[in-house]
Task: structure prediction
Amino acid sequence: MRRSEEPIGMRLLNRNARRPKKANHGKRPCSHHRRRLKRLSRRSSS
Result:
């Protein structure tokens, strides 16, 4: 059963900008999040 009528491509937009969830039941956090924070903080500190 589909929750909405929008196409799959529209539901997958902006996937990398979402807040991280605990993927794989807490075994592996969202991998890009900490790298992105480090990159953005480096830019603002200089």
About this structure: The CA atoms of residues 21 and 30 lie 6 Å apart. The first helix runs from residue 8 to 11. The radius of gyration is 15 Å.
